[in-house]
């Protein structure tokens, strides 16, 4: 893990301020817009950015991100453009960026070229949504050699023993999906209890991805874990919103940040 990402995690532990990770689909609706939106996220309070690499069959993601991926694929953005996007973002911002993808994209690129692209873009790691933790050791080790991370996923079906195993191999933070493939499947009380159990056996930060779409839910989720990951709601704001998208996105990020920081 590089100093940029470790600084975010350590500061969150010291200040007890929730970590806010916000997601965008690269090249939705076009690449220059993605750069503008990344800057807005960073400027308005996001601690981490998940940059989703467009994929033709994004089965893990819901309908909003699936539509965004379809739009982005029409832009015919390749690895060179993604690298340039990362480099342009780093000219002005140091907010950590995690590239989110599917394992097919890693295999088709090749592990070594994939990691080389992440380094050239000055990204901080990867999320590989369909790679089981028990099959991720080689990729995690290769990324670690380059000071990059591979945060694992946990879900409502993850047992406490399974969580202990995953947390021991975690190199940064964990992402709680909050669902088993569809809408959230746990009550708030069940979620609170599960987070208490997990946090009792590991100090690794857990970011809750639970269909967060407003400040109140952001506050509820971050109260019980270590932060939130907001994806579909962020991408939905970009879909068909026209010339006011940047202002709308900025206001939404500020609102979520304020909700998370509220006592």
From TrEMBL:
Pathway named in the protein's UniProt entry: Amino-acid biosynthesis; L-tryptophan biosynthesis; L-tryptophan from chorismate: step 5/5
Gene Ontology cellular-component annotations: cytosol
EC code: 4.2.1.20
Active site: 50 (proton acceptor)
UniProt-listed SUPFAM superfamilies: Ribulose-phoshate binding barrel
Keyword terms: Amino-acid biosynthesis, Aromatic amino acid biosynthesis, Lyase, Tryptophan biosynthesis
InterPro entries per record: Aldolase_TIM, RibuloseP-bd_barrel, Trp_synthase_suA
Keyword Lipoprotein (UniProt): no
Superkingdom of origin organism: Bacteria
Pfam families: Trp_syntA
Main EC class the enzyme belongs to: lyase
Reactions listed under catalytic activity: (1S,2R)-1-C-(indol-3-yl)glycerol 3-phosphate + L-serine = D-glyceraldehyde 3-phosphate + L-tryptophan + H2O
Molecular functions per Gene Ontology: tryptophan synthase activity
Family per record: Belongs to the TrpA family.
Subunit field text: Tetramer of two alpha and two beta chains.
NCBIfam families found in the cross-reference section: trpA
Function recorded in the entry: The alpha subunit is responsible for the aldol cleavage of indoleglycerol phosphate to indole and glyceraldehyde 3-phosphate.
Protein name: Tryptophan synthase alpha chain
Organism: Bradymonas sediminis
